[in-house]
Amino acid sequence: MSRILMKGNEAFAEAAIRAGVKCYFGYPITPQNEIPEYMSHALPEAGGAFIQAESELAAISMAYGAAASGGRVFISTSSPGLALMQEGIGFIASCEVPLVILNVSRGGPGVGGIQPGQADYLQVTRGGYNGDVKVPVFAPSSIQECANLIYECFDIAEKYRNPVVILADGMLGQMMEPVELPEAKGITPVEKINEVKPWAITGTDYHEGRNVVYSLRLDPQALEDHVNDMFARYAEAEKELVRWTDQGLDDAEIVFVAFGTTSRLCAEASEILAERGIKAGLIRPISLWPFPDAAFDKIGPNAKVVISTELSMGQMLFDVKNAVRGRWPVALINRTGGMVPSSIEIADRAEKALKEAGK
Amino acid sequence: MKKKLFFAGAGGQGALAIGQMIAKAAMDEGLEVTWLPSYGPEMRGGTANCTVVVSDRPISCPLINDADVLVVMNLPSLTKFQSMVVPGGTLFINSSLVPETSNRDDIKVIEVPANEKASELGNERASNIVMLSAILKETGIVREETVRHEIEKTFSGRKAKFLPANLAALKSYLD
What is the dihedral of CA B72, B77, B78, B84, to 10 degrees? Predict the structure, then answer.
């Protein structure tokens, strides 16, 4: 396979098609509009269906129904759009229906702005759903990694029978990088769906008797048993889906914790700090839930401060403090509202945090 | 080797397009690249700019603090961005539309009458490719033949009628 230079959003759409997506539903929102645009012509050409819904609520509801019938379903949106989809995501999780959701996030709150943001951290890792629901979340830092994750997350969603969220941001969606796209898997024909998804509502031509996908359980014992079943799978997910990369933790004085675009800024900030004689390391969570607590056990004896670096007011900070468990002081370097700090700004603020930690 | 380039102009002047052509050509020559555009409501009628990083090693950060090469297609871009050129760096000015020169004396300034030359070649809209020609001649960042290949791919099918003027524009500084 050769590398091609592709805009992030277009590479994400193409990766989903190659994963065998049957249906895409979307409603336009910047900075992910190239995804529905690309899907509108490329998905029908690949044998799938594209529908521009009348709202995000409609899009997630269409996804719910289509995914219940067993085809691979992909949706994408950006921050305020994801907020509108929360109810649907909770229902889909409750019904144990697999779905892959891409959030190309932007600055908030409210309608906010359209520049890159990471203030959806709590929205995606905790969610606005009622009931006991968890959703695996992955945060790529390059177009290649995002394309690979989209491709893989359909398998993850089907294995755990749960929605999976990929949290990118406006910068990854809008930029171009060389990317090597995975092979096209093709769409599973309807007569083959029940071989891998016996629960899917494909019609009685394809399965014995009725298949029912439902969320309502009026018997509390039945509902508790159902939630316990979901949590048995979440326990497996917590073991199997933890992913991160780390760099230079052995002798780091400063340990940055950053995901997505921000991790790339921290990597350059570490080079700037090295020129100033300061050793900085980086923990880059790829899975945000489950959060990679184990990464923090690799931090070496020279560490003076752990710095959560985010495009939000410090939403990942909770998880960082939880993983640090009081072993090192924790600081925050952040911008929000669509503002992105320069690598120099991060280096300067990290140096200051290091001095303050030494006091 | 790592080069940071910044292209700025009014929306429609093709600053983003020549950034993309350099990025694609560099990738075809086996280098790592990132291309990052400004995006938002300012793109229609206002300024449009993009950052290109070219390196022989993986690129951590697509955002830049300063530029080795700055290309300005109009006056507001010169005013706004000339301070970001590193000392010893190169500034390309579209002198057809920019009546001023740079206030910097620690950088190399190259004035390119891009619109005039493109008009002489039969299509003023190829002014960005005239600029691209000057950049290739001065920096040698990518090879002419790789870029020519990109231009041939860009101006194919319905756009094939624009190919001759754009190929002539690519030659304008490279004869």
Answer: -90
ipTM of the complex: 0.95
Question: Phi and psi for A145 in degrees, rounded to 5?
Answer: -65, -40
Residues of A in contact with B39 (CB under 8 A): 30-31, 114, 170, 174
Cβ of B58 under 8 Å from any chain A Cβ? no
A174/B23 CB distance under 8 A: no
pTM for the whole structure: 0.96
Residue B134 has what pLDDT?
Answer: 98
Where residue B42 falls among pLDDT bands split at 50, 70, 90? low
Identity of the residue in B23, B36, B65 whose CB atom sits nearest the CB atom of A344: B65
Query: Is any Cβ of chain B less than 8 angstroms from the Cβ of A264?
Result: yes
Interchain CB contacts (distance < 8 Å): A and B: 54
**What residues pair up with A282 in beta bridges, in sequence order?**
A247, A256
Helices (H), chain B: 15-28, 75-81, 114-120, 127-139, 144-154, 163-171
Interface check for B47 against chain A (CB to CB < 8 A): the answer is: no
Nearest to A172 by CA among A283, A32, A36: A32
Mutation to test the B interface, candidates A4, A5, A180, A346, most B Cβ within 10 Å = A5
* Cα angle, residue A182 at apex, residues A180 and A186 outer, rounded to 5°: 150
Q: Is A177 on the interface with B (CB under 8 A)?
A: yes
Helix axis angle for A260-275 and A343-358, nearest 10°, is 70
The angle subtended at Cα A107 by Cα A105 and Cα A111, nearest 5°, is 95
The whole-angstrom separation of Cα A219 and Cα A225 is 10
Count CB neighbours of A28 within 10 A: 14
The neighbour count for residue A171, using CB atoms within 10 Å, is 25
